[in-house]
Structure formats: C-alpha cells, structure tokens
User: Fold these one by one.
Assistant:
Number 1:
Amino acid sequence: MTVSDLAGSDETILVAQARQSDATAFSELVRRYENKIFRLALHITQNREDAEDVLQEAFLKAYEHLDQFQGNSKFYTWIVRIAVNQALMKLRRRKTDKSVSMDEQFDTGEDTLVREIAAWDEDPEQQFSREELGRILESAVQSLEPPYRSVFVLRDIDDLSTEETAQALDLSIPAVKSRLLRARLQLREKLTRHFKRKGDDAFAYL
Amino acid sequence: MLTCKDFLRELSDYLDENLAGEARTELEQHIAACPNCWVIADTTKKTIRVYKGMDPYPIPPDVEARLMQALERKMAAKQSK
Ligand SMILES: [Zn+2]
C-alpha cells in the first residue's frame, strides 16, 4: 500500500496495521500528528531543542508500546499524553532550582483576573499582519503559567474536548474547566492591550 | 439575582454553549443589564476565536527529517529482533 492510499485511512485501521509491524501505517500516524505534537511540546518546554527531543521521544515510545494502547481513546489523545509527560520531565530537569508543577499554586477568585474592561473592535485581528498577529498571540500564550498553558493549548488551539484534555493531562474535569477559564481570562486581559478600541480611553475621562 | 462573580464563574460554559434553559437565560439577562460583563463576555469570545483561527505551526523540515530517521532506526531494530 502506498502512502497516498493511507492518507485518508481510518485511524483505527492505521493503528491496527501499525501493531502488525506495518512501518508505513505508523509513519502515516506520525505524519498526521507531528505538527500538533511539536507545537504542543514547544508550548510546554518553551525551547526548540527540548521540543524536538520531546517529539522524537513521544513517537518512539508510542511505537515501542503500541501494544499497550487501548482502543478506547483516540490515538491522538494517547500520544498527547505521552508527549505531555516527556515535556514535563524536561521542564523539571531544566529548572531543578524551581519546582515545576502542574498543580495550581494559589487559588484566587476569577474576578481578580479581570482588571481591564474595554471593548474591542468587531474584528480586532484584522488590524495586524499575519506575522504581527502570530507574535502577539504566541507571546500571550507563552506568558501563561504551565498548568494554564497546557490546558489552553489542548482545548482552544488543538480543539480537544474537555474529557480528552482531562485524560491527556491526567486532570479531573473540574480542574480542566477552572484552568481553562483562568487561561482565557488572562489571555483576554493581555490581548486587550493590543485589541481595545481606539479612543475608549479618552471617553473614560468624560 | 446573579452577581458579576457568579457570571464570571459560568463564563466558559456559557461561551462553549454548554448551558441550556434557565441557567443560560439567567446569564443572558445579566449580560443585557451589566455593561462590564457584556464586554468581558464579548472580548473573551473574540480571544477564543482568534486562537482557533491561528495558523498551524508547520514542523521545520530538518526536525521532521531527524524524527523520521530516528523512527526508521527504531523500526529496523524491532524487525531484526
Ligand atoms: Zn456583571
């Protein structure tokens, strides 16, 4: 079977074929998810070298332990979980002085996350070039603490469901929900600096 | 009466359309009456939207090439076992 035949194949079939030591089938699975896994690894480690290591380790581990993959979750959720674990291990090793934890350090009310309340234009992103917009969005995500960043990337960028995100990060559903809300509110706050409607500041003094 | 704090706590579920019936109506009534929460809901909704539309970050070709090489080595080792 050629690669182009496999490109449209059902994931369960690919996994079954890969389990029978079909190298082409596993390579197709890798091609399907390598971009997302690399982006996720970059977001967690914030370091290109580490992200590349995580990417390789995740897929090599997956290949090695393919027989342990239970068909009751998506292959993508499974590989995400492996990649997240590898990435967290890297983070811990890198910052031996500072403890890196996926747990929340403090628990303040959501209302403390809202400081600036200013309306945005209808399509604020249109005022920026793609490159500029990309930089603004990336740097805002990078400024989030790791527990919030991972949840946000999986839920709102990679479009995983709440249940899949909980599975991938080994968190409870309420924990995913509360971290997602906090991440969204913090990003909203950061983006307001760039996206707020011009002139609204002046009106505030009238 | 729903407070702004209550509203904020439900914001994600509201924006993800996980709420129905009375819970949703209550939030909608709050937004209609509270300009601050309207702005927060609107700007949070736009925040989610701009990230969803973000270009996928393509994997650099050299990174992909090294990944494929590592996999081939691994597969070859497994076959020879
Ligand atoms: Zn309010």
Number 2:
Amino acid sequence: MTDTAITVEGLRKRYGDTQAVDGVSFEVKHGEFYGILGPNGAGKTTTLEIIEGLREPDEGTARLLGEASWPRNPALLHRIGVQLQASAFFERLSAREQIHTFASLYGVPGDRADAMLETVGLNDKSGTRENKLSGGQAQRLSIACALVHDPELVFLDEPTTGLDPQARRNLWDLLRTINSEGRTVVLTTHYMDEAEILCDRVAVMDNGRILRVGTPAQLIEELGVRSLEDVFLQLTGREYRE
Amino acid sequence: MKSFISLSKAMALGLLRDRAAVFFMLVFPLMFLAMFGALFSNDSTPQSKVIQVGDVKVLDAMPDQQRAALRDVLKIEKTDGSPAARKEALEKVRKGDMDAAVFQQDKGGIELRYSAADSVRSGSVRGVVDSVVQQANQQATGQPPAYRLAPRQVEDESVKPIQFLTPGLLSWAVAMGGVFGSALNLVSWRKKRILRRLWLAPVSAGSVVGARVGVNLVLAFAQTAVFIGLATLPVYGLQLSGYWWLCLPLVACGTLAFMSIGLLIGSWAKTEEAANGLAQIIILPMAFLSGSFFPLDVAPDWVRSVSEFLPLTYLAEAMQSVLSRGESWGAVLPVMGGLLAFAAVLTLIASRLFRWDDA
Ligand SMILES: Nc1ncnc2c1ncn2[C@@H]1O[C@H](COP(=O)(O)OP(=O)(O)OP(=O)(O)O)[C@@H](O)[C@H]1O
Ligand SMILES: [Mg+2]
C-alpha cells in the first residue's frame, strides 16, 4: 500500500458558464488531517463531491485508497464516510431511526449506532423527527451518520457550521480522536482557527484552483503574516464573492 | 438484503407518518366506496312492486324456488279480490306507490295495469311479469322447454352497483397509490438529497427501487384487503366470485404499471407540488374516462375510444371479471402482460429522465 490515501489529478468541472473546478490536483497522505479553505463559491464542495464519487468530473481523476471513485464503486463506499454540506435525511424519521437505517446500510450493529448518537450528544433527541431538529443538531446527526461505520477516510463539508461553541469543541475532540486512530480526514471550513488547530496541511482554493498548499505554520511563515486568516485574506483578496 | 429491509422500513415509516398520504391513498378511496355504495344500495336493483288483486293463478302457483329467485326484482303484495280493493290498487298504481296491479281475467288471461307516467318502471314490471307468465305457459305444456329464458328483468343483467364499484374503485385506489407513492417519494427524496446520500452508501439501486416497490405492493394489498372486507359486509353485499383471489396478481401488476407512471412524473418534476399536480391531472380524468367510477355503456363514443388507451380501463375491467363475473386466468393474463409491458416501457423512459439531484 502506498502512503497516499487520496490522489487527485487535474480535476475540472463546468456548470454552464461557471468553471467550478479548474484543474485541481493534490495528494492526501494516510492518517493526514487535510483542510480545504476558500471563499464562498471557490469550488470546495464541488471538488469534494467529485472526489467522493458523487459527481462525474469533466476531466481528471480521483483515486481513494488506490481505487478510482468514479464510476460508483460500492466496495470503496464501505471505507469512506461522507457528511454533505446540506444534510440529507430520510423523511419523517427520528434521529435514532435515521442513524439506525444508515448503520444497517453499512452492516453496522444497532448498538454502535446508539453509541454514535451518544458521542455527538443527541441522546435526548433520539426520538425527535428530522424536521424538528435544530440546525446544529441536524448537523451533528449528519456527522454521526457519516462516522457510524468507522470509515478509513472521512469527508466533512463544513462540519462545524451552525454548531454552538460546546458542540464545536466536542466535534474537534471527536475528529482528533478519529484522526489519531489513523483515519484520514478531509474537511472544508470557513473557520481559520479551526483549520489552524486541526489540520496537518491546508489547501487554499479560489476560482476553482488551488492557490497554495502547506502546513498552517508554513503558510504563515511564507507569507510573513500573523495568522492563517491573514494568509487566507492575502491569497484570496478582500472582495466579496458571488 | 439487510439494506433492502432497512430501506423498506424507512420508507414505510415515512409513508405511514404522512397523514395526508395515508388519507389520500387509503381512506379517500374507501370514502368513495362507502359513499357510492350507500348511494346505490337502495335502488341497486330496481325492484318492481306489484299489487295482486285476488287470486292470480300463475303467480300463486309459482314454485318457491322461482319465487326466491325473483325476490330481488319482484315484490308481490296480495289483496283480496273485491272491487274496492281493485279500485284502491289502481289508485296506488296511478299515484306511483306501486308499479303495477295484476288481476286474473277469465280463461287464463292476466291483466296487468301499469302507469304510463314512468316508462322505465312500467317497462321493467311488464318485462318481469311477462317472463313469469311465459315460464308458466311453458310449464303448462308439460314439455321440456325448447328455449330457455332466465326469469330476470333486463336491468338485472347489468352488474349490481357494488359488484361494479368495488373493482373500479379498488383499481383507482391502487392506481393512486402507485402513482403518488412513487412520484412524491422520488421528488421529495431528491429534494431532501437523501438520494445523493444513498448514492454514497454501499446500496444498490436495485435495493432502493425494490424497497419502494415492496412498500407499494404491501400498501396495495392492504388496500385490497380493506376494500374487499368492507364491500363484502352485508350492508354493501358484494358477492365475490370463485376466482376473486386472481385480483392479487392483478393488483401487483397494476401497482407496477402505475408506479412506472409515478416514476416518470417523479423523474421529470422538480417540486412536490409539480409532481402532485401532474399526478392529479393524470389520475383523475383517467378514473372517470376508464369507467372506474361508473360504467361506460352509456358514455359517448369518444370517451370509449379514449378509454381504450388507458391502463386503468384494463385493470378495472379485469378486476371486475375476477371479482364479480367469475372469470378466470383467461381474463387476467393478457391484462397482466399488458400492464407489465406498459410498466417496462415507462420505466425505461423514466430512467432516461432520471436525475439524482436537482443540479
Ligand atoms: N449544481 C450546480 N449547478 C450549477 N452551478 C453550480 C452547481 N454547484 C455549484 N455551482 C457553482 O460552482 C461554483 C462552486 O461551487 P461550490 O459549491 O463548489 O463552492 P464552495 O467552495 O463549496 O462554496 P461555499 O463555501 O459557499 O460552500 C459556484 O460558483 C457555484 O455557483
Ligand atoms: Mg461548499
């Protein structure tokens, strides 16, 4: 086995007039905690979804754990866990029923699902229907569903958006634990402090391209600024994004 | 297999918790059955009421067996033969309280007095009494009959309304369940992005589709059980024919055919509202034009031509054949084949239009 968990080469994806992803290549090593940063519309979600095998790239390839993720590869799907930017739940099912359904899709026993619910602090919301959960609770459930089958490779698209400070800290702990067990984690975030604390390496994206890759400390040093936030602003400018 | 079961469970729970869906798919058609059934149950068989003045040989001598057979169509009220009674009887006929009065004339002649005011009722009473007389004549010859005519009035040749309503409304209910079930489910799962999420889980498309079909089949069989259960209650009095159980494979094929319509709608429609509207536009006229609600015997020609293109027509017709007309495999096999072929073609088209997500 090579030491790269993810190999992405020359990804391009176009939506009508928008070149959402414009030649993205990078590698993520086994056990690495990798962050993708970028302003709104930079192409982070599109890139992740192509890598996960949810969308077909116009050009380029993504290999996960040595296997191509497109066309759909069910064997691979057992080994990856995905939290999509917009949560996706079964209609009218309770939190507990959601995670149990996902667990059984992956052949995971029910007590593991209950334990996961406990881990994200949703125990007392287990009987609550999906549409009655608060935004942050839904987000936590979505993360729990992504992690229920103990995947080797975890993709999280803005996992901490909408979480309260407690839940955010708890999720950080959870992700660090997972990562320290040797699992590879890829996440996108708009919180620079989070990226700085969690990520081994970050990639800064804009307009569908990767501008810079490196450890947070490296990037700060290279650009001679004080924080990752300054790195981000310097690389991507201060104007609003459409 | 495990994912098939858990998906089925998730779908079934989601469906059962959708009160509006349960109402429209299960309760609504039943309301129609209860309503129509009650509406038609009174004059379901237009019974002729005849007042018999004094002795009338043919009527008095009717064998019990024949009397029993005629009970639904002919009710005889006997009075004494006095002139007063006769006058009163004619008055009742004139007022429409009774359909006809019968007296014995000399030499075997029988006089039947009816009112011209209601030609339908007078026609049917003439028909039924005439048949009684014919039969008596034939028996009087002592010969075995050369020709045999069933002693029933023409109206009774048509199916009793409940015999017609149950198969028709059941077919309609199955059609609604199939179309709405798959169309709304598909659209809302797409909108809720659960389809994309499932794409990233190790489940086959077969499990997802299979689970949905399974849930719809169970729903359709539940509808069938409730419908037949209700219609066979004495109040409604559905008489099931010997091959009624053939309605089960028929219901299954019908479900597949109508689910394929729903699949097509769901693949095309972007919102639940659009799917719902389109499904209504397809199902409601189809229900009327296919003769699920009332027979098309008296419908204009164009309606009957249109109905020949509607799958519901064939489903309802075949359903009626096995539920009330006592027909067997011969009546259902071609229809089942047709419905399955229809389902295959539409599913193929739908798969071309299918989208995993809104993007
Ligand atoms: N399904 C789609 N159809 C058309 N255009 C799309 C679609 N998805 C994304 N885009 C466009 O592609 C570009 C990149 O979108 P993407 O969702 O990848 O951005 P992002 O970096 O995840 O942004 P955010 O931080 O807001 O989540 C945007 O300009 C967006 O408008
Ligand atoms: Mg995004």
